[in-house]
Amino acid sequence: MVGMKKVLATILIVGFMLSLISSPPLVVSAEIRPYVYEPTVPDTAFAIIALYKMGDYDKVLEGCEWLMAIRTPFDSWGYAYGEDHEAKYTAMAIMALIRGGEHSKRPLQRRYQQRRLLAHIQAEG
What we know:
Elements: H1 2-22, H2 41-54, H3 57-69, H4 87-101, H5 105-124
Helix pairs in contact: 2-3, 2-4, 3-4, 3-5
């Protein structure tokens, strides 16, 4: 009985090895790409509102600038950049833009003016 188990195990191992040798080589291709987070309009809109409530106006401005940069040619928004515009995502973006500039208009305008001035100085020098 023990001898029979050894013979069976040997046959299975040899058969497995022969199948590996006789089969064509397995070609595996993998593309290595870094993960890049691509924010959506709802993510950005809710983040702007939360950051506004926390008083982080620099980040609010960045979020508002991002929303303005990803709008469609029809001045509306889709779920993400390059997607068709929909009313629900346009409403979210506008809500965030209004909230972002509601009571913090002066800090936002001041920060925006500082950035424009800095960009102008860097372009000249």
